[in-house]
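Following up on my earlier thread - several people asked me to post the actual chain instead of describing it. Fair enough. Here it is, all 90 residues.
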Amino acid sequence: MRGTGRVTPARLKPAGEQLARHAEVAFAGAISGHHNLMASVICRDAEDFYHCLTTQVAAIDAYEVSIHVRRLKQAASLIFQGRLVHTSPA
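Reply from S.P.:
Thanks for posting it. Predicted structure:
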């Protein structure tokens, strides 16, 4: 999961440090643009992602959050040359 948030400039450093303390956070940093805080989070599964989102991310004092989810692996799906391939029954 990658997410961006917008916090007041005075809260940027504390909010980034608060995010970075969590074990699931692989990267947290200040960015420029509409949003000024970005984090990449690695979760085991959808349940772990939901827990992270509703506890750790929700605790950050941001007034706008945008979440971007990218699934890296899904059981029973095969991707070949960037396309989903339907497997035939055995």
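The helical segments are 12-20, 46-57. That should answer part of your original question.
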